[in-house]
Specification:
Strand content of chain C: 25-35%
Distance between the termini of chain C: 71 Å
Oligomer: heterotrimer
Largest sheet of chain C: 5 strands, mixed, barrel
Number of domains of chain B: 4
CATH superfamily of the largest domain in chain C: Nucleic acid-binding proteins
Structural class of chain C: alpha+beta
Number of helices of chain B: 19
Number of strands of chain C: 7
Strand order of the largest sheet of chain C: 2-4-5-7-6
Transmembrane segments (chain A): 6-22, 95-115
Domain Cytochrome c-type biogenesis protein H TPR (chain A): 130-261
Subcellular location (chain A): Cell envelope
Order of helices and strands of chain C: HEHEEEEEEH
CATH class of the largest domain in chain C: Mainly Beta
CATH architecture of the largest domain in chain C: Beta Barrel
Helix content of chain C: 25-40%
Main location (chain A): other
Helix content of chain B: 55-70%
Structural class of chain B: alpha+beta
CATH topology of the largest domain in chain C: OB fold (Dihydrolipoamide Acetyltransferase, E2P)
Keywords (chain A): Cytochrome c-type biogenesis, Membrane, Repeat, TPR repeat, Transmembrane, Transmembrane helix
Largest interface: A-B, 100 and 104 residues
Radius of gyration of chain C: 22 Å
Largest sheet of chain B: 5 strands, antiparallel
Shape of chain C: elongated
Number of strands of chain B: 10
Chains: A mainly alpha, B alpha+beta, C alpha+beta
């Protein structure tokens, strides 16, 4: 509301700037061109007189200069009074007043409504950090934890909270560092060590590095049954070319898992990949389940895809400058049948690239193609 | 403050600028005083709204409001406050907003201080200024809007290019813009006069203060930019003939020509057609510079964004204003009345020579800057026109200017006495020879031309003083009278002499630096030494240091001369963590007017570090000279003659020209 | 002197100055321009040694060798051909392997390139325009990919 009042006051000031000089009482006769010229030439004459008096110019020179200026004065005097400056007729004044009264609000208002975002409040950083946490503002939540950790660098819990969030939005370096700090301050446990190992592995593009490997080993030391650690150590063995060890770890993992464990499909696929037989899970149902798990059920695949799309969405909310990402997000939601989410993504993308006509064009084209309207 | 206030103020500015283009022009056409008056209030309101808009953006930067896209892209909450503020104009959108702000401020100044102007001229000037503002506001709103919002806002910005994170950036662009955009006023005066079809000596008097203001700011801006590049880029060079530097130099040449030819026009009513053309050219070259920098046609340090749609938009603005004004000029100029006559050897003649050489230099720079573009468009060949071209052409054109400079003010108007002027310059000439001889002796076997250059520079400085001494009459009249006359001299005489002396000082610095600088590149280990320009530098230690948003590797050097310790120099390699981008923070030690300049290179595999060191004799005179020039401009500006009071339409006794004083020529 | 004569004299002086200036510009342009070439262009055209050039391309990965404090050797490539460059001096701040670079200098008789100045990009998003064009020609870099 305050904003609209400010807008109206500003518009009023602009209109007043036109109306004020038009009011009849303001009729001070304008300086005519000839008068203004004359003022300059009189000044020039006076200056020549001063120079001559103080001996700065020779009398002959001064005389010649005077002659020239005097001739200019004569010429201008002849023009004087020829230009009739009217103090304005009412018809013109009315036209101008109407143009100002209607044109300014219409033009400014219309243009602003198409360009501006009046509903977006100002969001100074300090204020965002102080305000009540808004669960949708992940960026700020992280910032808050970060500034809290800056002040209390020995709060292990803080690192533990923020580490998985870092991993989710793809800040893998920070995730690894946070897990390492949590381990340093709170002591190792299986969850922290696997977290660290996973972050390190993801950072290395899926390669289980030596550092990651020792983290997983530490996790196993803390909890010999930790399935993630088992899986990744198997992966490490596979990457080192030790298929036998990989097969052994994975088989053991499957054998120790309950039949509804979510990782069975993944491990089964890994075993098939290295050509090892897939054993039955702990309370052994038939091989049919295993086979089914190998090729994920449509629901599972859907859930997996949805997880990926959500991660993409979270990343774009963080750093919106990636046009390809936005286009992918729009397409992905459409494929998943979430037309309205796709539309929201298109809207957000447009806001991000409002000043980039090339990107806008691509967004519009895709929206058209996907039938999202534009 | 809500960024939307700034956004609305910007939109409203467009509406106001449109009205400002139309209403006063209509008033001037119909002779309607009320409509003409509207121009002044609109100019003030326009400056207010653009200022409000700019202030809002600054606040968004200071508060790190990351819901504004422009802040996200160019700021970072860890940046020191000063650089958060200067970051506002360290990017494309913000700098365009600053451009328009300066434009609006100049229009408002005309509205405020233009009481002595004829109403019709003033109205037309404001209308032209309004049209330029309209074009650039459209450009900002539709291609480079700084108020685009981001939802949801990120928690951190993407920092500002570290090269631009410097105090030099805080002052250099605003000064440069005050100069660049200041010429919009002289442009507006020229177009307004052409529209009216009436240009006379009084016009020159009205234009001169504006041209001088713009020129002084441009001079300062160029000097600041040069010093910034000198210490921030770490190459030890103070002028690179970078397209952006050229873009500021071209209007400077044209503007320098303009302030001189305006004098002729004011005094003798001559060179009118030419002066008006220069007023148009100075701003056209400013626009061209803006186009080159903003469109990304030429890449350089200063190119923030390369977006073709922006380039096309600015090109359209360029074509409209330059083409339009030149067409109007072609249409109206032949109708202007010829002015006073003069002999080739006269004050006017000297100023014509100065104008020719300055415009030729401006054209040479223009050719060198645009030739690669033209050639590539023509046959695809990629070439570079480098410093050798510019040094040769501009150098060859400026030397005669420097040599002729002391003569000009000593020549009389209309018909001068060259031999007499030369005679009065004998003392200056003698002093110059002495200095050249001293320089030749001091340098031993250095460049042959250097002593001549030093002599020329000394001639310019001393010759500039000769005018003041001559006009006061020292040596011809009793000393007391001479002193009395000296006090009575108009300030513009002192201003002119000071500016000319500044040129000499600057020239002195340029010639000394280019002829006698010493450069040394070496790999140094801690404890090791090397020699440059007679100074021995020892690397005492290399130490890491942490700044607010960067890490430094600092090399501390001890300077000795002949075994005597003279102090230390610290030079650093700085890594900005947000962008993982290194910069060089050169270490500079000033001794009198000379400088020792040390920049660090990479750490070497075997330990130690690469070092580049320069000895730059008299280098600071380059910038001191430029500041003296600008001060000269300011002094001239303060001359009361440029502030002729408002014409009083009241019945004042008309000065009757003495009939006897109007003989036929 | 008559009115006309004076004006003629002033105008002819002006024409003289402009004529000299134009001559100067043409002379300087002829003598001082430097062509830009990519390694493949040099290989294809057989450019003569001793020619002053601006060589542009990417710094080949693993090719930078510091021989002593200030002598550097590196290889510039555009994907089609390679060219060895020797340079004495400090490399610019943003000189990195795999990044765009422009070296100005002279082609040596042995087919290598002796640079007297080396320019790198100014920030992490800027690729010298000439280099980008040359790489596009070789198909190494495509528009919109950003800096490789």
């Amino acid at each position: 509301m305050l904003l609209w009042i400010a807008f109206s006051l500003m518009t009023g000031a602009a209109i007043l700037a036109v109306l004020w000089p038009l009011r009849t009482g303001a009729a001070v006769p304008a300086a005519s061109t000839a008068e203004a010229d004359l003022a300059v030439y009189r000044d020039q004459l006076a200056e020549i007189e001063r120079d001559r008096a103080s001996g700065l110019i020779a009398p002959a020179e001064g005389e010649a200069a005077r002659t020239e200026v005097a001739r200019r004065i004569l010429r201008v005097s002849a023009e004087r009074g020829r230009e009739g400056a009217s103090s304005g007729d009412d018809r013109r004044r009315r036209i101008v007043a109407v143009v100002a009264l209607l044109g300014v609000p219409l033009l400014a208002g219309g243009l602003y409504l198409s360009l501006g975002s009046p509903l977006t409040p100002p969001q100074p950083l300090a204020q965002r950090l102080e305000a009540q946490p808004d669960p949708s503002d992940i960026a700020i939540l992280i910032r808050k934890v970060e500034s809290h950790l800056e002040a209390n660098p020995n709060d292990g819990r803080g690192y533990e909270v923020v580490a998985p969030i870092y991993a989710r939005i793809g800040r893998l370096d920070d995730a690894a560092r946070a897990w390492a700090n949590a381990i340093r301050l709170l002591g190792p446990n299986a969850q922290r060590e696997t977290g660290l190992g996973e972050a390190l592995t993801a950072r290395a593009g899926g390669v289980v590095t030596g550092e990651a490997k020792s983290a997983f080993q530490a996790a196993l030391a803390a909890d010999p049954n930790d399935p993630k650690a088992q899986y990744f150590l198997g992966l490490a063995a596979e990457q080192d070319g030790q298929t036998a060890e990989a097969a052994q770890r994975w088989s053991a993992l499957v054998a120790a898992s309950p039949p509804d464990a979510p990782w069975l499909g993944l491990v089964g696929a890994a075993l098939t990949r290295i050509g090892a037989p897939v054993p039955a899970p702990a309370s052994g149902p038939g091989a049919a389940d295993v086979a089914a798990a190998q090729s994920l059920t449509p629901e599972q695949r859907d859930a997996m895809v949805r997880g990926m799309v959500e991660r993409l969405e979270a990343r774009l909310a963080q750093e919106g400058g990636d046009i390809e990402g936005w286009l992918r997000l729009m397409r992905a939601w459409t494929v998943l049948g979430q037309q309205d989410k796709a539309k929201t993504a298109a809207g957000q993308a447009r806001t991000h690239f409002a000043s980039d006509s090339g990107a806008l064009g691509r967004i519009d084209a895709l929206a058209q193609e996907l039938g999202l309207g534009s | 403050m809500n960024p939307e206030i700034g956004h609305y103020a910007l939109v409203l500015s467009l509406a106001v600028a449109l009205l400002m283009t139309v209403i006063p022009a209509w008033g001037a056409r119909t002779g309607d005083a009320a409509l003409m008056r509207v121009g002044s209030t609109l100019a003030l309101v326009l400056a207010g709204f653009v200022g409000l808009s700019f202030a809002t953006l600054v606040v968004a930067y200071v508060q790190s409001d990351f819901s504004v896209l422009n802040v996200v892209e160019n700021s970072h909450s860890a940046k020191p406050l000063l650089y958060r503020i200067t970051g506002t104009w360290g990017n494309h959108e913000g700098s365009m907003l600053l451009w328009v702000l300066v434009l609006a401020i100049f229009a408002a100044l005309v509205a405020l201080f233009g009481a002595n102007l004829p109403a019709r001229l003033k109205a037309n000037v404001l209308a032209v200024q309004g049209s330029v503002a309209t074009a650039f506001l459209l450009f900002i709103l539709f291609t480079s809007n700084p108020f685009t919002r981001v939802i949801p806002p990120p928690a951190e910005g993407q920092d500002l290019n570290p090269i631009l994170q410097d105090i030099g950036l805080a002052i250099h662009p605003p000064l440069l813009y005050l100069g660049y955009v200041g010429f919009s006023i002289t442009f507006a005066f020229a177009v307004a006069a052409l529209i009216e079809g009436r240009i006379d000596a009084a016009w020159a008097r009205w234009v001169r203060p504006w041209a001088l203001t713009a020129w002084a700011f441009l001079t300062l801006g160029i000097a600041m930019g040069s010093y910034w590049a000198y210490y921030e880029l770490g190459w030890g060079g103070w002028w690179f003939w970078d397209p952006v530097e050229n873009a500021s130099l071209m209007p400077w040449f044209a503007g320098t020509a303009l302030i001189h030819s305006a004098v002729v026009m004011e005094k003798r009513d001559a060179l009118k057609v030419w002066t008006v053309l220069l007023a148009i050219l100075a701003f056209s070259l400013s626009l061209l510079g803006t186009f080159l920098v903003r469109s990304g046609v030429l890449t350089s340090v200063h190119t923030f964004a390369t977006d073709p749609s922006r380039g096309v938009f600015i090109l359209a603005i360029l074509v409209f204003f330059i083409g339009g004004s030149l067409a109007l000029y072609a249409l109206r100029a032949p109708m202007l009345r010829q002015g006073g006559l003069f002999a080739p050897v006269s004050r006017e003649g000297a100023l014509v020579l100065n104008n020719l050489l300055l415009t030729a230099a401006s054209a040479a720079v223009l050719v060198g800057t645009l030739y690669p573009l033209a050639l590539e468009a023509y046959n695809g060949a990629k070439i570079t026109v480098g410093p050798p071209y510019f040094n040769l052409t501009v150098g060859a054109l400026m030397l005669p200017v420097a040599f002729a400079m002391p003569f000009g003010p000593l020549l009389a108007w209309k018909r001068g006495d060259l031999a007499g002027a030369a005679q009065r310059l004998m003392a200056a000439f003698g002093a110059a020879i002495v200095i050249a001889a001293l320089a030749a002796y001091a340098q031993g076997g250095g460049p042959v031309l250097a002593p001549f250059g030093m002599g020329l520079a000394a001639f310019v400085v001393i010759g500039a003083m000769a005018e003041v001494i001559e006009r006061a009459g020292f040596g011809r009249v009793p000393r007391a009278t001479a002193f009395a006359r000296l006090r009575g001299l108009p300030r513009s005489v002192f201003g002119g002499a000071l500016a000319h002396a500044g040129v000499g000082v600057c020239l002195f610095g340029i010639i000394a630096e280019t002829s006698w600088n010493a450069e040394r590149i070496a790999g140094v280990k801690v404890g090791g030494s090397f020699e440059v320009g007679g100074y021995e530098l020892t690397l005492d230690r290399l130490e890491p240091r942490n700044g607010p948003n960067y890490r430094d590797l600092v090399g501390v050097f001890t300077v000795r001369r002949g075994g005597v310790e003279m102090g230390t120099i610290e030079s650093a390699k700085r890594l900005f963590t947000a962008r993982n981008m290194p910069t060089t923070e050169s270490g500079i030690r000033t001794m009198w007017f000379s400088q020792l300049y040390v920049s660090l290179g990479d750490e070497l595999p075997g330990g130690g570090v690469g070092v580049r060191a320069y000895w730059k004799p008299f280098v600071t005179l380059i910038w001191i000279g430029s500041i003296i020039m600008a001060l000269g401009g300011a002094l001239s500006l303060s001359d009361r003659r440029l502030r002729v009071g408002a014409p009083k339409p009241a019945k004042k006794p008309k000065v009757r020209p003495d009939p006897a004083a109007v003989p036929a020529e | 002197m008559t009115r006309k004569g004076r004006r003629l004299l002033v105008i002819s002086c002006a024409a003289g100055v402009l004529f000299v200036a134009a001559g100067l510009v043409l002379f300087a342009l002829n003598d001082t321009i430097v062509f830009f070439r990519s390694p493949s262009e040099i290989a294809a055209e057989g450019t003569r040694p001793g020619t002053r050039l601006r060589l542009g391309g990417l710094v080949k990965d693993g090719s930078v060798q510091h021989t002593d404090g200030t002598h550097v050797r590196f290889v510039v490539t555009d994907g089609g051909a390679d060219m060895g460059v020797t340079y004495v001096g400090l490399l610019p701040d943003l000189f990195r392997e795999g990044q765009g670079v422009i070296a100005e200098g002279v082609l040596a008789p042995d087919g290598s390139f002796t640079a007297d100045s080396v320019l790198a990009k100014h920030d992490e998003t800027y690729m010298p325009k000439e280099v980008a064009d040359a790489l596009k020609k070789q198909g190494v870099w495509k528009e919109g990919e950003g800096t490789p």
